[in-house]
């Protein structure tokens, strides 16, 4: 079990790893070794995630989410397979930690009487400044 937060833990069997060849520079080494990691995690069917966290996680995943609800994370920045695995897992766990935080609900408030008066006073002042810029009338 991987402990994500004090209340959320996911089983290692829920995470599927596959290794592919990394793109980019690296010479002959990059052509021979499959060092890039493709990490797949089924957020929709994970028993370790509460339903609200899974919904927020799928929204946060964005383009990394497939139509089946599987999150795919590709890590290929490091030269070693082991470091790419660690990086991909850490990115997944960080995504789950972000989804575990409940967003604060905004409670709408009414403006105070003093703030309304300040707003109207500033509007009057601005109006007088602008009217002072106009051409004198024919009075």
TrEMBL record:
MF-aspect GO terms: peptidyl-tRNA hydrolase activity; ribosome binding; translation release factor activity
Prokaryotic-type class I peptide chain release factors domain location: 21-37
UniProt keywords, alphabetically: Hydrolase
Entries under InterPro entries matching the protein: Pep_chain_release_fac_I, Pep_chain_release_fac_I_sf
Region annotation Disordered: where it falls in the sequence: 101-139
Enzyme Commission number(s) from the entry: 3.1.1.29
Enzyme class: hydrolase
Compositional bias segments (type: Basic and acidic residues): 114-127
Pfam families referenced in this protein's UniProt entry, alphabetically: RF-1 (PF00472)
GO biological process entries: rescue of stalled ribosome
Keyword Magnesium belongs to the record: no
Superkingdom of the source species: Bacteria
PANTHER family in the cross-refs: PEPTIDYL-TRNA HYDROLASE ARFB (PTHR47814:SF1)
Family of this protein: Belongs to the prokaryotic/mitochondrial release factor family.
Name this protein carries in UniProt: Aminoacyl-tRNA hydrolase
Upper classification of the organism: Bacteria, Pseudomonadati, Pseudomonadota, Alphaproteobacteria, Hyphomicrobiales
